[in-house]
Amino acid sequence: MHLPDILLVHGAWHGSWCWELLIEELRRLGRTAHTVDLPSSGSPAGLHEDAEAIRHAIAAIDRPVAVVGHSYGGFPVTEATAGSAFVTRLVYLAAWMLEAGTSISEAAGMPPFETEVVPPPPDAVAQFYDDVDPVVAERAVAMLRPQSARVATDRLRAAGWLTIPSTYLVCDNDKTLPPAAQEEMAARASAVHHLPTSHSPFLSAPADLAALLDQITMDQARVRS
């Protein structure tokens, strides 16, 4: 069996550094993983620039690939993968899975930010890393970067999940994106799984997440668990 590669797309304020523990676990399972740094993390770029960066990453892999988007990362993944011939499955990890024409600001019912970039939240450990080892969490907080405010108001131009099989991973103890909101978006997915973690299982439970990704990127069946 020829397994697809896996492309990991980080969320707001983060970078490809956040996937290091997960990549180690995926390699132990014999899987090949790639990452991409989104321009909106650390600069005023918007959704469409992020989507273009993901398209370039998919093209560079140049073989079948499953694309995993975490949190905000699910938003540009949705646009970038529309019409792609290489993408075998989309995985939304506690992520924004929205319809074309929609913005995160509208979906969340929040007003636009008043600044061009938004600093990391002061309670980042509680929000993102509630169940992460304190040493790992402290190191992660030190790596966070300002996030472009545009990503909240830019609208999706297309939705890859309309034609590509998708799986939603609900993080049941998430303090950033409420599990109820995740469940609502997960209704759009082909399959749904639950993780008993907070918002960042790639840091708190990388082995468990790797095993689940290994399973679902091979499985095209419609499953709920």
Care to describe what's here?
The chain is an alpha/beta fold and 225 residues long. The chain has one domain: Rossmann fold (3-Layer(aba) Sandwich), CATH 3.40.50.1820. The protein has helices at residues 20-28, 47-61, 74-80, 104-108, 124-128, 134-143, 179-186, 201-204, 206-216, and strands at residues 5-9, 33-36, 65-70, 87-93, 117-118, 147-148, 166-171, 191-195. The strands form 2 sheets. Strands 2-1-3-4-7-8 form a 6-stranded parallel beta sheet, sandwiched between helices. The radius of gyration is 16 Å and the shape is globular. The two termini are 25 Å apart.
Radius of gyration: 16 Å
Sheet-strand content, in percent, reads 15-25%
What is the count of β-strands?
8
Stretches where pLDDT falls below 50 for ≥5 residues? 221-225
What is the annotated CATH architecture? 3-Layer(aba) Sandwich
Counting copies of identical and different chains, the oligomeric state is single chain
Helix/strand/pairing class, anyone? Answer: alpha/beta
Q: Give the overall pLDDT as a whole number.
A: 95
Along the chain, the helix and strand elements come as EHEHEHEHEHHEEHEHH
Number of domains: 1
Number of helices: 9
Gross morphology is globular
Looking at this structure, what is the CATH superfamily? Alpha/Beta hydrolase fold, catalytic domain
User: What composes the largest sheet?
Assistant: 6 strands, parallel
CATH class: Alpha Beta
Helix content: 25-40%
Strand order of the largest sheet: 2-1-3-4-7-8
Terminal residue distance: 25 Å
CATH topology: Rossmann fold
Protein name: Pimeloyl-ACP methyl ester carboxylesterase
Organism: Lentzea waywayandensis
Domain AB hydrolase-1: 6-211
Pfam families: Abhydrolase_6
